[in-house]
């Protein structure tokens, strides 16, 4: 009996021991599966939310990168440089290889630009009396949204303007017009009308009389000295995880937007929070993989958004949301990558990539743009047409040295009925150069600029004519 009991006890002990082994193995399997699930969730969240964050933050990071690279001496041959809260004045009418970091620059105006930081105090902007000459300064915040100083909005008399940040509570000097800016940092891009090389000196004299001063160094009529140059390595954060570090650093300073609280909560789920630090070196392997994938996907998404065709009017793609984007983050990012821009009422940029047959515009083809006598572009300013290489959105050298054509082009030949026909091709036409716009040899982007467009343009009552391909 005792022997039987002992045997039963040994069997039971063996069974229990096996169960313990099974349970231990099962626990290990469960734990391993849990780790896999956690890694899957972490990588997927970082990838999907990170892609959205890339799209949202693109103009913020792009501007921050440009600000560093243009306010520091990052190379001996850089074209654009000025310290923070100072202006760089482009020394010539923009042509091939002189546009600096500008994307699809115009040939109608002299450019001047600067990056501001009003986190400590306001920035005062002095503008001279241009005596009716067109000029504008686009005050662009880090969200790529715009306000304008200039002929259309503030007139052309000598004035002082004060940019103030979201947290500044002080008082500006008398006769200084306040302009509130949502972000503490941002970009100033100015344009001054120039009527060709013969008008250069007069236009540049006015540009040189536009200057900036922080409030503490401001004295009416006295331009402050230029600070010493600061050298630093160039930054490139658009293509790597530093993109998110740069975004996070700016996110800490940008005031929350009430309508974006839910979106910000999603960003917080992957560590992009105003209330916590963000360091790519401390990321888990899963989170790192997800965010690295997000950078690749986000970049492709922005590029695709830039290249897509939006609804067109007679073949012309026209966006009337530039400078005011609401929740359209994709459009905002695509405009930033394409070069930013003015509000529609300041200037419109109808653009064309394809001809009427759906083929990319190409310099070997001959195109004509015909305006009936009573259908010239209705503008309160002026209009022009330019062509850019599709590869880099820059002007291409031509023997005629003409990089735009428009209502101010000297020597234009109108038809006997008052209409106007412009010819677009790479090679010089046999008959006349008067109405010829030289275009790049390969594929190109065509951009019409309508400065101070009339209401008929803004309300789609006026449409630009179709571009016609001429059989050779």
UniProtKB/TrEMBL annotation:
Domain DUF1214: 346-454
Domain DUF1254 as annotated: residue spans: 84-211
Highest taxon above the source species: Bacteria
InterPro entries: DUF1214, DUF1214_C_sf, DUF1254, DUF1254_sf
One Pfam family it belongs to: DUF1254
Record's protein name: DUF1254 domain-containing protein
Species name: Pseudohalioglobus sediminis
């Amino acid at each position: 009996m005792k022997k039987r009991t002992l045997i039963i006890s040994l069997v039971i002990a063996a069974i229990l021991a096996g169960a313990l082994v099974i349970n231990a193995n099962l626990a290990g399997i469960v734990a391993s599966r849990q780790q896999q699930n956690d890694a899957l969730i972490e990588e997927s969240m970082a990838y999907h939310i990170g892609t959205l964050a890339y799209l949202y933050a693109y103009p913020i990071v792009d501007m921050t990168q440009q600000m560093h690279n243009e306010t520091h001496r990052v190379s001996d041959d850089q074209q654009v440089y000025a310290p923070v809260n100072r202006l760089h004045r482009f020394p010539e009418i923009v042509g091939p290889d002189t546009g600096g970091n500008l994307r699809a620059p115009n040939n109608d105006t002299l450019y001047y630009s600067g990056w501001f930081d009003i986190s400590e105090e306001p920035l005062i902007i002095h503008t001279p009396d241009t005596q009716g000459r067109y000029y504008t300064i686009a005050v662009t915040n880090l969200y790529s949204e715009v306000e304008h100083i200039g002929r259309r909005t503030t007139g052309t008399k000598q004035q002082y303007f004060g940019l103030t940040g979201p947290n500044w509570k002080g008082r500006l000097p008398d006769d200084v017009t306040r302009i509130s800016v949502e972000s503490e940092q941002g970009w100033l891009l100015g344009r001054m009308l120039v009527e060709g090389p013969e008008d250069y000196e007069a236009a540049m004299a006015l540009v040189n009389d536009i200057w900036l001063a922080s409030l503490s160094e401001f004295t009416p009529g006295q331009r402050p000295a230029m600070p010493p140059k600061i050298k630093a390595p160039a930054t490139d954060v658009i293509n790597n995880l530093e993109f998110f570090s740069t975004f996070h650093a700016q996110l800490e300073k940008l005031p929350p937007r009430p309508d974006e609280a839910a979106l910000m909560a999603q960003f917080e789920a992957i560590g992009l929070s105003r209330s916590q630090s963000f360091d790519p070196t401390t990321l888990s392997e899963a989170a790192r993989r997800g965010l690295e994938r997000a950078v690749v996907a986000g970049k492709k998404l922005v590029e695709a958004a830039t290249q897509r065709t939006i609804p067109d009017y007679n073949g012309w793609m026209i966006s009337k949301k530039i400078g005011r984007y609401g929740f359209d983050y994709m459009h905002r990012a695509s405009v930033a990558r394409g070069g930013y821009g003015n509000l529609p009422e300041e200037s419109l940029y109808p653009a064309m990539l394809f001809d009427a047959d759906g083929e990319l515009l190409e310099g070997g083809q001959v195109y004509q743009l015909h305006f009936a006598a009573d259908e010239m572009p209705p503008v309160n300013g002026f209009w022009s047409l330019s062509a850019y290489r599709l590869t880099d959105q820059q002007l291409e050298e031509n023997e005629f040295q003409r990089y735009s054509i428009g209502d101010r082009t000297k020597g234009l030949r109108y038809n006997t009925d008052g209409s106007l026909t412009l010819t677009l091709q790479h090679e010089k036409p046999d008959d006349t150069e008067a109405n010829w716009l030289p275009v790049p040899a390969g594929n190109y982007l065509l951009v019409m600029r309508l400065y101070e467009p009339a209401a008929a343009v803004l309300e789609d009552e006026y449409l630009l004519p179709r571009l016609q391909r001429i059989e050779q």
